[in-house]
Amino acid sequence: MNPYSINEMMEALYRLEAEGAANVTLLGIGPMSKTLIRAAVSLAKEMDFPIMFIASRNQIDSDQYGRGYVCNWNQNDFLRNVTDIKKAAGFDGPCFLCRDHGGPWQRDEERAGKLPSGHAMAIAKDSFREDILAGFDLLHVDPTKDPHAAGVVPMDTVLNRTAELIEYAEAERLRLKFPPVAYEVGTEETNGGLTDESAYGQFIERLAGMLAAKNLPMPVFIVGQTGTLTRLTENVGRFDAAAARRLSAEARKYGVGIKEHNADYLSETILCMHPALGVTAANVAPEFGVAETAAYLLLAETEGRFADLGEIKQPSETREAIRTAAVLSERWRKWMVNGADAQVESVLADAALSEQIMRISGHYTFEDKNVACEIQKMKDNLKSAGVDAETEVINYIKRCLRRYADCFNLAGLNGKIIETLKRINKP
After folding, report:
1. Going by fewer Cβ within 10 Å, which terminus of the chain is more open, N or C?
2. What is the pTM of this model?
3. Mean of the per-residue pLDDT values for the chain?
4. Quick one: which H or E segment has residue 241?
5. Which residues are within 8 A (CB) of 222 and not within 5 positions of it... i.e. 6 or more apart?
6. Alpha-carbon span 145 to 104, nearest angstrom
């Protein structure tokens, strides 16, 4: 049970901002693995900040839609494991479960199969209902993918589908007698049609009118395009600080915050600007998965050195298992700048390219039986040599997470929010 809701958190943050307290940027963390969740909970406990785990439908979804590549979890598995990890860590701070990019055609196979719009919308609604039943705290309503649209999905279509999905989710929530959830709308992708401030402002204004007419809640976050774009292991976009400030001001006119996606790999110089520019929240996912893969590869190298010393007799094949499974998964195609159409056989034969793919897509393979077996063998080998591999991996990921927590001024935020809510609610 969280000590406060996302809506209450935003109320407290806006109060702190109005009182002249240091601005913050909330961090949305992609739950790429169970180990990453442990690392995030551990760091949040140390630094006292609220966690938002942002799960895409490819990562976590209901049984009937194939679950997800993260531990093969559905929504209830996700909730149960996060709850267990919090309890084991002794963390009683907020840990919000958030749906990232919920909506029609948001699973790869739905888009590839070009499902009819009615079918795709029905699936999106079913998925949202499962989110609500599992106690998700925030639903990102993103109907901006459409395999039947030529180029940009028209704003009218995006607005109508957004309102329809929020209306459905609210009706289901009330029918099921669940507490209020927070909403996020929009997309960072150029096909979402919100690539400049005028379109962004028009979208918010029109959406606000449509939701008010149906007595539906306004979202807490509107996604805005600040110029970020993640490819491979770098941010190849050009962060536009002036645009970020203008989009933030536009969103705040309507009492909502701007959410930035694809904040992975941004420099600390840019990250430190985010709170001052008014970026309310930012999502990071692939970078943390890449960090976990890098940790395993470093440990595999350590294992090899112990084997050279004769202290490990049968070293694992962790590196080769991850490399092969990563290439065979073909999930790397969406992250590649060049070579996205290469044949799997030729990629496996290309040492440099397969190495690159292993590092950017290794996190998709952690539930592969062979990969999991080799990683466990490596951990056992290292334990016999005196190395706590699990702790090393968690600490490696925490260093990556801490970069964002520090730049976004998150230290001590949970305590500040609780104290502010007490002041607000004081009779």
Report:
1. C
2. 0.93
3. 92
4. helix 241-252
5. 184, 185, 186, 200, 203, 204, 251, 256, 257, 258, 259
6. 7
